[in-house]
Write a structure and sequence with these properties.
Structural class: mainly alpha
Helix content: over 70%
Largest sheet: none
Order of helices and strands: HHHHHH
Number of strands: 0
Shape: elongated
Number of helices: 6
Radius of gyration: 26 Å
Distance between the termini: 64 Å
Strand content: under 5%
Oligomer: single chain
C-alpha cells in the first residue's frame, strides 16, 4: 500500500467513525429526521422480501453500525473497495435525511445545511474513487480485456501458421 493510500483511507473513513458513533449514541434524537427517508424506503424493501425492521431508531443504529464497521474496513485496508461501496450506498439516504436544505426557511440554517449536503457529496466522490482503486494492481476488467486481446492475437497467429502450413503441404504434394 502506498503512503498516500495509507493516509487517505483513514482520513476518508474518520467522518464515518465519528458520525456513526454520534448516530449510535443519539439515535432517538436523529430518528425523527431519518423517518422522512425510512418511511419511503423500508416498505418497498420489505415487499421485496428483505427482512428490515420498521422501527426508525433501530434503523438509525443499524446504519451507524454499518458506517463504523465499513469505515474500519476502509481505514485498515481490509476490503477497502467493498467498504467504500457500502459507505457510498449508505451515505446517500443519510445525507438526504440529515441535510435537507431545501426544506429550510431560515437563510442561515439553509446555508449551513447546504454546506453539509455538498460536503457529503464531495465525500461520496472520494468513496467512489476508493471503490474503483485497485491499489496499483490491474483490476478484473483490465485483466479480462487483456486476456481477450491476448486470445485474439494468439488466434490470428494460429490462423496464419495454419495457412502457412497448408501452403507448404500443398507445395510438397505438387
Amino acid at each position: 500500500m502506498t503512503v498516500t493510500r495509507l493516509i487517505a483511507r483513514p482520513l476518508l473513513a474518520s467522518m464515518f467513525v465519528v458520525g456513526g458513533i454520534n448516530a449510535f449514541r443519539n439515535a432517538d434524537a436523529i430518528a425523527p429526521r431519518a423517518a422522512k427517508v425510512t418511511d419511503k424506503i423500508v416498505p418497498p424493501v420489505q415487499r421485496a422480501g428483505v427482512p428490515l425492521p420498521s422501527d426508525t431508531v433501530t434503523l438509525v443504529r443499524a446504519n451507524a453500525a454499518v458506517h463504523i464497521l465499513a469505515a474500519a474496513g476502509l481505514a485498515t485496508g481490509r476490503a477497502p473497495r467493498a467498504s467504500a461501496v457500502v459507505l457510498a450506498a449508505t451515505l446517500a439516504p443519510t445525507t438526504v435525511a440529515g441535510h435537507p436544505y431545501w426544506e429550510e426557511s431560515d437563510a442561515g440554517a439553509k446555508g449551513n445545511q447546504k454546506v453539509h449536503f455538498f460536503k457529503n457529496l464531495s465525500i461520496l466522490g472520494g468513496l467512489l474513487l476508493a471503490a474503483v482503486d485497485t491499489d496499483g494492481k490491474p483490476g478484473l476488467a483490465w485483466r479480462a480485456r487483456r486476456a481477450a486481446k491476448d486470445a485474439k492475437r494468439e488466434a490470428k497467429h494460429v490462423a496464419a501458421s495454419a495457412k502457412r502450413e497448408a501452403k507448404l503441404a500443398k507445395a510438397q504434394l505438387s
